[in-house]
């Protein structure tokens, strides 16, 4: 009996992992927002079905913490309701509608990853040419979300709990990567439309405040990582000469190169420590040695 129980529990755990892996964190968030848009009482349905307190704020990070998967929330809807969502998304009427919806969100993020450098440059013309419909106002948030997704694909631990704990109403860190229970990398994702990113004084003030808040919570910031389309020479030199914090710089094209190399290898070898070398990181060398 114990052996059979172990098999059942193991199978359920593997099933949950597969269901989470079908969508990235960003894709899960997009799905949740879409369902809320089409069904205004969706959150109430979620609270009733999973017995969530009215006082609790619900977002996809909370759902993940409770092991509520994208598949779980789709099955809250009846077959007819799911077909309504499918039709409003202009998806094919052939095949399983829930699977089609999941695949559409997965494909949308894959397309954004493929065009990641254009997203970093806020190049709406290039994005539209790639059939990506996005507004100017959405670009910054999307760049942050897709950057997190790339790090997740690189098998890094993007720690939303720590990030939330150091954020304030006015000042919000973009990314926190946990290296261990105590060590983290604080990441900042910057889009920039024309030329090289050059706002060092503003950016350094931001990241230093994040570092201080991390350290006040007992975390050691091993490195600050800033991702942007490209950096001015003054920005690079200022980062290298900063004596208060350790800063690494990574160009968006370089991160995409690392991601492509990682995905192309059968047994890739990548460590977050490669992001802690300081200065402008040599993405070509990192990609070559994955």
Automatic annotation (TrEMBL):
Q: Which domain of life is it from?
A: Bacteria
Organism for this UniProt entry:
Shewanella insulae
Q: What is this protein called?
A: Restriction endonuclease
């Amino acid at each position: 009996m114990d052996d059979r129980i172990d098999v059942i529990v193991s199978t359920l755990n593997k099933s949950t992992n597969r269901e989470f892996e079908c969508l990235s964190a960003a894709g899960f968030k997009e799905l949740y927002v879409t369902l809320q848009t089409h069904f205004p009482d969706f959150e109430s349905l979620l609270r009733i079905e999973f017995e969530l307190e009215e006082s609790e704020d619900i977002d996809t990070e909370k759902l993940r913490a409770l092991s509520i998967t994208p598949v779980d929330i789709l099955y809250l809807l009846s077959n007819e309701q799911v077909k309504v969502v499918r039709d409003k998304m202009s998806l094919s009427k052939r095949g399983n509608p829930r699977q089609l919806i999941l695949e559409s969100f997965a494909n949308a993020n894959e397309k954004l990853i493929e065009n990641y450098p254009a997203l970093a440059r806020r190049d709406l013309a290039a994005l539209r040419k790639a059939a990506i419909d996005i507004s100017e106002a959405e670009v910054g948030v999307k760049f942050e979300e897709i950057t997190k997704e790339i790090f997740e694909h690189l098998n890094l631990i993007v720690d939303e709990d720590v990030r939330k704990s150091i954020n304030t109403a006015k000042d919000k860190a973009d990314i926190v990567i946990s290296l261990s229970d105590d060590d983290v990398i604080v990441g900042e994702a910057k889009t920039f439309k024309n030329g090289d990113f050059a706002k060092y004084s503003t950016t350094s003030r931001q990241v230093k405040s994040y570092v201080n808040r991390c350290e006040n919570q007992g975390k050691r910031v091993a490195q600050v990582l800033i991702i942007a389309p490209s950096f001015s020479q003054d920005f690079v030199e200022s980062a290298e000469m900063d004596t208060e914090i350790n800063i690494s710089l990574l160009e968006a094209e370089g991160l995409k190169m690392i991601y492509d190399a990682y995905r192309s290898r059968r047994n890739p070898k990548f460590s977050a420590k490669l992001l802690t070398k300081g200065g402008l990181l040599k993405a070509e060398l990192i990609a070559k040695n994955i």
